[in-house]
Hints:
- By secondary structure, this protein is of the alpha+beta class.
- Helix content is 44%, strand content 24%.
- It is built from three helices and 14 strands.
- The protein has helices at residues 27-118, 128-135, 146-187; strands at 7-12, 21-26, 200-202, 205-208, 215-218, 221-224, 230-232, 237-245, 249-257, 260-270, 277-278, 283-287, 297-304, 307-309.
- The strands form three sheets. Strands 3, 6, 7, 8, 9, 10, 11, 12, 13 and 14 form a ten-stranded antiparallel sheet that branches. A two-stranded antiparallel sheet has the order 1-2. A two-stranded antiparallel sheet has the order 4-5.
- Strand 13 (297-304) and strand 14 (307-309) form a beta hairpin.
- The longest helix has 92 residues, at 27-118.
- The model is unreliable at 124-140 (pLDDT under 50).
Amino acid sequence: MGWLSKRFTFVIIPDAKHSVQQYRVSGLFILLVPSVISLLLLFALVFFLLFSNRALLTNELKAQLTAIETRYEQQLTVKEVHISSLQTNLVQLSEQAHTMENKLVEINELEAQLKQLAGIDMKSPVTLSSLATEQGGEELQLPEGSTEKLIAQTSKQYSSLDLQLDSLIPQLEDTKKAVMNYQQLLKTTPTIWPTDSRKVTSLFGIRKDPFTRRATYHNGLDIGGKTGDPVYAAADGTVTLSQRDRILGINVLIDHGQGIQTRYLHLNKRLVESGDKVAKGQLIGELGSTGRSTGPHLHYEVSVNGKNVNPKPYIKADREEP
Length: 322
């Protein structure tokens, strides 16, 4: 390796116009320069390879991020469509619930009217909101995908209930009309006692006449009492006769419609006149013993289509106090 200490001369001969240039360098310098150049080239190559790999990795990461972002946007779009669909379904369910709430209110009103007509104690009406507040319980976590199923089932149930409510309202209306007709019929049917007394002294049918002592047909019901005791109309109607008769005494005849009439004989006093409208339980006179009578009593008759019938089966209840 002695040549490393030797010195070498490099001659550079330019063109004819310039002088020759000489450079003297040691053998060590000649060795170091290529080595340094080689190292630099090696470093440059390594740096290029590292940079290329990093660039490829960066591009790959960017591609992955782009793909993830695209999938996220797609999922977000699907979720937004899903949420919009759920909101639409919920709005429809809300409208169905509101419709049924209104129908329930209508049904409750009809029910209240029916109860009032029938004399039933009133209770608080049932509504969807009250049912919701009474349910209580803890919140249940629904599995994914079951929300749509639940909404579909609820919507189907609401539709079924809606149809049932639609059919129930006319039925209640018919029932209301039937109850009103029954109430009207009940008002015009002689179903109450015409006196405060319940002492029946002579029944309807064949009996021994108190004057002739012979068997005769008794076309009414005799109710004993005291002179001046109140006598009431057995049903709603119109007074068609209010008179004094030598045999029947002071008497009142009331027409209740449907071919039904009631008559009240041997009164001490009459408090209504022909043409008066009377209500069931209204005071129409005083019990007495006028006409052909053996003592204070009310002779009470019920006739249907002009034929006297037994009043006893008609009497079902006491007079309601006003």
